[in-house]
Amino acid sequence: MLKAEKKVSFFDTISPFVKISPKSRSALLSVMQKDHYPKGHVLVPLGGICRHVYYIEKGLSRTFYIKDGKDITEKFCTENSFTCSMPASITNVPDNRQIELLEPSIIWSMPYTELEKLYDDYHDIERMGRFVVTNELVHMHQRLSDLQFRSAEERYNNLLQKNPDLLQRVSLGLISSYLGITQETLSRIRSRV
Amino acid sequence: MLKAEKKVSFFDTISPFVKISPKSRSALLSVMQKDHYPKGHVLVPLGGICRHVYYIEKGLSRTFYIKDGKDITEKFCTENSFTCSMPASITNVPDNRQIELLEPSIIWSMPYTELEKLYDDYHDIERMGRFVVTNELVHMHQRLSDLQFRSAEERYNNLLQKNPDLLQRVSLGLISSYLGITQETLSRIRSRV
DNA sequence: TAGTGTTTTTGATAAATGTCAAAGGAAAAG
DNA sequence: CTTTTCCTTTGACATTTATCAAAAACACTA
């Protein structure tokens, strides 16, 4: 088997939507690093600037920040998806977002600066970037309209329906801030179903 | 003055961030259509699928949908920015988002299918697409964290600070749903400042 | 200017959610 | 098995926001 054909789930995730040429593929692989991390590992610490895009091959990450002393989960990220601290990566200004792993995980890291070089050189990689960002944007639209005019209960049921496994894998305290409510309220919602 | 150098504010908006070659520029112009519309004009009606990306040279648009009989403003869009019904354009599935103009406006329309052809042929146009979407995503992050854990009053003050002119141009009823609150609550917030 | 329709404000009340404190339960560690 | 720690639930109460109804302010037209 040729080296370039080695199975990497990253490309399985991408390829249905964006064709990546063999050359681009190896260029990408040359800047990607695969690591195994334990539960609790911090990918982006407080005060740090997120300079990588992460692809989660296995495991689960959480992006969060502290607001008025409260820990607020902005995003969960599971197998076969991408995560980074978007505002920081783009603007290069430190936001206060941190990323930590909630499970032992297999993570592919791509330095943002390397990725930008690849964007210059490979049209299809630029397209991949556009695709990933666009997907994320559609997803954000969904979340926004959830938060804008749905009750806490509706939001919970929504999550339960769309992402039932998340509730098995993550403690309720973290889920509640993701839904924009307190832990107590979430507990009460669950009890009255 | 060469035709290709004719002033189009669209390119002024883009060029600080993405270099567009003369060839790409005219390719873009060839699929862009400039129109003047009156206040109240509907760019994307109920039930329609948004098949264009719109650039607002002058004026103001509003993206909204009806939920439980209530009119909810998802987004305002002012001069020198882009709008489209993202979920519909991408997935080609009708969402129930409509786009209407709140002022007499000058709008450049780009058919989404044409744009995708240009993405294929011109790397820099694809980059422009990535840039626009990325910008929008950063902006959405901001809105999301606003809605997730800020009070109605904080959200209003935030808007007042970041977008004071919007409050001059748009009626409070439309602003309130954008902030995720009722009109009455918004009125009370304003009165107690 | 008077009249009509729209937007904004105000009032009374109800519903949803937050806060603080404490009690149960479950899981991990010894 | 017991202890310790962390996670979840429950209770009492405060606060925020929604709802429904009506009044007031404003803008446009005849």
TrEMBL record, chains A, B:
InterPro entries: cNMP-bd_dom, cNMP-bd_dom_sf, RmlC-like_jellyroll. Residues 16-59 form the Cyclic nucleotide-binding domain. It comes from the Bacteria. This is Cyclic nucleotide-binding domain-containing protein. It comes from Flavobacterium beibuense F44-8.
